[in-house]
Write a structure and sequence with these properties.
Strand content: 15-25%
Radius of gyration: 27 Å
Structural class: alpha+beta
Strand order of the largest sheet: 2-1-5-4-3
Number of helices: 8
Helix content: 40-55%
Mean pLDDT: 81
């Protein structure tokens, strides 16, 4: 029974040494517990913090048990295998402990990292909805009042004061526009409608979106986008409006990341690559966007699709969160990783794999 439990189970003796454990404990804690039986749990590599928290809970449990007659304790805390909070392999555990005969202790725990992440996402959806509502209402009156003031006083002030007025109004209008973009991001995240899935030519949709980024006759100051579309891609099941938003979000993020690279840095060209690939074996079409930026820290990679996780100084952290919500609506697999060249990070890549439409391949 213990071998088939998804939860981790450890039995400790009175000295805190491991007596037995199940495969679930090894999987969750990512440590070869069977090899360390008969030795203190605190000596297992990566588990000193976990062992200290468990010992602390049992000490508190012993004193409270005598007073209140409780039969177990339960606590949630993080596991830091690298010894540093915020590392990429951190997990959140719900841990329960109880006393056994002969001074032994029972520890049972589950990995609830995905549940915690889902709760954060749900909470952010509510925050986003409220912020979008509260911020949006005053923006238009602010902008109109500033423009009306400039119009009313235009031609009635000395040149110096007129210039100051115009500059101030322009600042107000620009900042209102920035706030409106922020509100739109919150609105899109909080009120994303259910996807209406229909057969969709992904290559054609990508080509349409790219008109905003690529112009054969104009040399863009921003990072250019190189397109690699697989002509063999069949139609995918998708919501055109939502996938259009995914492509736009990913391209914007990729260009921002690539622009952050200084011209003096010794690396390849600053560019964004947008690619589609048909995988006949998996029966899915893969959409990938590659940038030439600094990549992501390992801690960010783990939580990149959670709201308000961002590396941009002025970012909201909702761009990839919206991408993840849309991917989930489509039943698409979404992945993010750093791109490496000779052991060095040369950018990042986000990919989504879509199911094909019915009868797309005969």
């Amino acid at each position: 029974i213990l071998d088939n439990l998804t939860a981790g189970v450890i039995v400790l003796d009175a000295a805190g040494q491991g007596v037995s454990s199940n495969p679930g404990a090894t999987r969750i804690l990512r440590a070869p517990l069977a090899a360390w039986e008969g030795r203190p749990l605190a000596e297992v590599p990566g588990l000193p913090h976990f062992a200290a928290r468990v010992a602390e809970q049992f000490r508190a449990f012993t004193s409270e048990r005598q007073v209140h007659g409780i039969d177990h304790w339960q606590e949630s805390f993080g596991l830091h295998p690298q010894g540093v909070a915020g590392a990429a392999d951190d997990v959140t555990l719900i841990v329960r402990g109880a006393a056994l005969p002969d001074g032994h202790s029972l520890v049972v725990f589950d990995d609830i990292s995905e549940i915690v992440s889902a709760q954060r996402t749900q909470a952010w959806g509510e925050v986003a909805r409220r912020l979008a509502h509260e911020i949006k209402n005053p923006l238009t009156p602010i902008q109109l009042s500033a423009e009306r003031l400039e119009h009313k006083l235009s031609g009635k002030l000395p040149a110096g004061e007129q210039a100051l007025l115009s500059k101030s109004v322009r600042t107000i209008v620009d900042q209102v526009a920035a706030m409106q973009r922020l509100v739109n991001e919150f609105r899109d995240y909080a009120r994303l409608p259910a996807a209406e899935l229909r057969p969709l030519d992904l290559n054609a949709l990508v080509a349409d979106v790219l008109h905003l980024y690529v112009d054969e006759h104009v040399e863009h100051e921003s990072v250019p986008v190189r397109v690699e579309l697989d002509p063999d891609c069949p139609a995918v099941l998708g919501d055109a409006q939502q996938i259009r938003q995914v492509v736009h979000n990913l391209l914007q993020n990729a260009q921002d990341a690539s622009e952050s690279i200084g011209a003096e840095e010794p690396r390849g060209p600053r560019e964004v690559v947008l690619r589609t690939r048909w995988n006949e074996t998996s029966g899915r079409v893969r959409l990938s966007v590659l940038d030439s930026g600094h990549g992501f820290d390992e801690a960010i990679l783990k939580r990149a699709f959670e709201p308000y996780v961002t590396t941009k100084p002025k970012g909201t952290g909702l761009g990839l969160a919206v991408v993840k919500k849309i991917a989930d609506e489509h039943g698409a697999r979404v992945e993010i990783s750093n791109r490496l060249s000779e052991g060095r990070v040369v950018g990042a890549q986000v990919s989504l794999s879509f199911a094909i439409g019915a009868n797309a391949r005969g």
